[in-house]
Predict the 3D structure of the following.
Amino acid sequence: MTRNILITGATSGIGKANAYAFAKSGENLILTGRRSYLLEEIQAELQAQYGVQVWIYQLDVTKLEEVEVICSRILSEVGQIDVLVNNAGLALGLEKFQDYNTLDMMTMMDTNVKGLIAVTRQILPSMVENNSGHIINIGSTAGLYAYAGAAVYAATKAAVKVLSDGIRIDTIDKNIKVTTVQPGIVETDFSQVRFHGDKARAASVYAGIEALQADDIADITLYIANQPAHVQISDITVMATKQATGFMVHKDN
Ligand code: NDP
Ligand code: 8X3
């Protein structure tokens, strides 16, 4: 049966790749993000290419009231959500904690932690009521291994992992699965965002290493979502082959 897949942060990178992977396998998509012009482009392309239903909603996950309004619209206009992919997230900056821009720190917390909590709080009750659903949270190897200049980003991703575990406990008597996907280095716009648009610095992150691609993570997400009803993948960590911990990579140059 065709499922309804809700993805946050679907305008770029891993979220967008997930949208294409699920559409290719015939699922309906509900795509959200702040950049509505990108949502419109993706909607048109997915509908034309795969003939699936695609709803789009402009949503900034840091705006709590907006989250409530949009999630309630999604539930009434689309119906039951079968899979929620909490992907919207970002790193801002790479500095010693004592030198960090405070607003950047708070924006990471607001987006990666509070945004994920807010969206999940709106969608999970309907999953509980229907005794069915799957929440897939995009964490990071940063949540497992802190690294220099990333204390707050790493803390947000550690929070994602622990939130997933807690929600899994709270829904243990339901047919609800909760998964944390913890990717290592993935070549997306992530570093451009982190370095406030500095393209050269962002490119240097991926120079000399064959990084993961967004499609690699999308393949894994699809695999996770396609397991039989009795199989729950709780956590999955995926790194580039020449990566050993969160930020420890080997560069060929
Ligand atoms: P991108 O920058 O390519 O994508 C980030 C997505 O998040 C965009 O679609 C953006 O949409 C959305 N987003 C950011 N802030 C908000 C917000 N306030 N409200 C709604 N959406 C928002 O990076 P990635 O694809 O790499 O990142 C996706 C997720 O994967 C993040 O959670 C990131 O932490 C995680 N991750 C990334 C890794 C990497 O190496 N790239 C590795 C491990 C995890 P818009 O701007 O349109 O709102
Ligand atoms: C993003 C990957 O290695 O920059 O979560 O922390 S990393």
Remarks:
- The helical segments are 13-24, 36-50, 64-77, 102-130, 151-170, 190-194, 199-206, 214-225.
- The first strand starts at residue 4 and ends at 7.
- Residues 140-142, 184-185, 246-247 surround 2-hydroxyethylsulfonic acid (ligand 2) (CB under 6 Å).
- Residues 102-130 form the longest helix (29 residues).
